[in-house]
């Protein structure tokens, strides 16, 4: 409501070219709130308002708009204004934005950037997508180990405006080799001993990421050690940049979204759901649906193979949906729990005996309970009590089979170097459906013989 009420005032200020009030608007609130108040403006109006902010403040406010809107503005505005803004955007974020722009637009903007920024962008673009190098920012506080606490604070004051974060100060030698780390808190606390050097107070036992490391591995390290930022180094331990916790949060969200899509048997989407092309969306969904379709055909062939038994004991047909759903649902539950546990690092390949042990116990418990319910229903449908035993015995067997498949297959995929989420719920359900029919008919053959 507040946003809506402010829009006419913003438009009136723009119409009157009220520079004083527009400048005040750009600095009066938190940058995120300022961007929120401008959500109802057109892209042209937003850009016009941003021109009344100082370059660094303009970049801060701009960063809170959705990426698609940022790209839309950069595509149509004056190249010199765009270059001035891009220069102030954090290194990792501006690389992501530039990669979204058309090539001809990039060719217009890049020559207008300072040489150092151009080289930085090209260097970050050289790292493969999904690696620590592609995720890092090069705006990092690097200080010599010979600096005293007071000298370090003075140097930090000179660098601060160019840095994305100063949670940690990275101590390097003359070749930029990472020697240690000093937190800002440590530095301030050391002012009581102003002659103490960074080399004396730094921690040398560091958690680092190699530039070629997978971003998911980096995210797990940040989570495990509760870091606000993690340094990125090359194979020679030269400091290249840092990955901050906000970038790690983005990675976690991205990986969770990919896993959720794979669990639902959808190839991961490279773009937002509402932005991705319909043909691309259809392809990513259709390829797995086709695979699952042929898996379902195997279930149909299995039923045809046992056609004589089903014709002889027609009451067995009534329970087929129950048998299939019980096995598929139990397998899907196990697969989901194991996949999420593996994604969060709770379960590794070495834990497979414990996983199987737990799944056996849980499946026997669940299978026993549902088998009892199934038997109580079957005694009213089957010709006699002996024949009714087919249903509880099948349910118990199918649920145990489903849980073991759901627990084992993601671990097996991980061992083979594949994403465990590829062993999705529909995939597990399809496998268990076929096994369920085979188990069902063979138990019926034994009991009804």
Task: Provide an overview of this structure.
By secondary structure, the protein is mainly alpha-helical. The chain has three domains: 128 residues, MgtE N-terminal fold (Alpha Horseshoe); 112 residues, Roll (CBS-domain); 171 residues, SLC41 divalent cation transporters, integral membrane domain (Tetracycline Repressor, domain 2). The protein is 65% helix and 6% strand. The chain contains 23 helices and six strands. The strands form two sheets. It has a three-stranded mixed beta sheet. A three-stranded mixed beta sheet has the order 4-5-6. The model has no long low-confidence stretch (mean pLDDT 85).
Structural class given helices, strands, pairing?
mainly alpha
Total domain units: 3
Radius of gyration: 30 Å
Rounded mean pLDDT is 85
Strand order across the biggest sheet?
A: 1-2-3
Largest sheet: 3 strands, mixed
CATH topology-level name of the largest domain: Tetracycline Repressor, domain 2
How much of the sequence is in beta strands?
A: 5-15%
The percent range for helix content is 55-70%
Level-2 CATH architecture of the largest domain: Orthogonal Bundle
**Beginning-to-end CA distance, first to last residue:** 74 Å
Number of strands: 6
Count of alpha and pi helical runs: 23
Question: What keywords describe this structure?
Answer:
6% strand, Tetracycline Repressor, domain 2, 23 helices, CBS-domain, 6 strands, 449 residues, three-stranded mixed beta sheet, mainly alpha, 3 domains, MgtE N-terminal fold
């Amino acid at each position: 409501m507040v946003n809506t009420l402010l829009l006419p005032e913003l438009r009136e200020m723009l119409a009157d070219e009220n520079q004083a009030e527009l400048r005040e608007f750009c600095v009066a609130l938190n940058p995120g709130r300022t961007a929120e108040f401008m959500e109802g403006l057109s892209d042209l109006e937003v850009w016009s308002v941003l021109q009344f902010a100082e370059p660094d403040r303009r970049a801060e406010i701009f960063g809170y708009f959705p990426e698609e809107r940022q790209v839309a503005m950069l595509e149509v505005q004056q190249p010199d204004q765009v270059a001035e803004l891009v220069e102030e955007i954090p290194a990792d974020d501006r690389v992501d934005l530039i990669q979204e722009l058309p090539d001809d637009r990039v060719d217009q903007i890049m020559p207008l950037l300072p040489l150092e920024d151009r080289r930085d962008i090209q260097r970050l673009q050289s790292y493969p997508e999904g690696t620590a190098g592609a995720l890092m920012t090069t705006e990092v506080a690097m200080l010599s180990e010979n600096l005293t606490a007071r000298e370090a604070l003075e140097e930090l004051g000179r660098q601060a405006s160019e840095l994305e974060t100063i949670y940690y100060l990275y101590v390097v030698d003359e070749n930029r080799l990472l020697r240690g780390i000093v937190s800002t808190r440590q530095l301030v606390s050391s002012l009581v001993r102003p002659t103490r050097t960074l080399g004396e107070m730094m921690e040398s036992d560091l958690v680092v990421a190699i530039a070629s490391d997978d971003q998911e591995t980096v995210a797990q390290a940040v989570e495990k050690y509760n870091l606000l930022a993690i340094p990125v180094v090359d194979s020679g331990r030269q400091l290249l940049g840092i990955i901050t916790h906000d970038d790690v949060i983005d990675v976690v969200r991205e990986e969770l979204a990919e896993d959720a899509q794979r669990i639902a048997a959808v190839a991961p989407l490279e773009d937002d759901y509402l932005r991705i092309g319909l043909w691309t969306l259809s392809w990513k969904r259709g390829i797995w649906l086709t695979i699952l379709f042929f898996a379902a055909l195997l279930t149909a062939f299995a039923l045809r193979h046992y056609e004589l038994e089903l014709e002889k004991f027609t009451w067995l047909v009534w329970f087929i949906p129950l048998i299939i759903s019980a096995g598929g649902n139990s397998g899907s539950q196990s697969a989901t729990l194991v996949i999420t546990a593996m994604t969060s690092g709770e379960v590794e390949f070495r834990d497979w005996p414990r996983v199987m042990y737990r799944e056996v116990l849980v499946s026997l418990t669940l299978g026993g309970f549902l088998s009892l319910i199934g038997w109580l229903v079957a005694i009213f449908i089957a010709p006699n009590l002996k024949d009714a035993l087919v249903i509880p015995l099948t349910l118990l067997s199918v649920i145990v089979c489903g849980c073991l498949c759901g627990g084992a297959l993601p671990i097996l995929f991980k061992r083979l170097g594949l994403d465990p989420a590829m062993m999705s719920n529909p995939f597990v359900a399809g496998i268990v459906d076929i096994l369920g029919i085979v188990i069902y008919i063979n138990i019926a053959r034994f009991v009804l013989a």
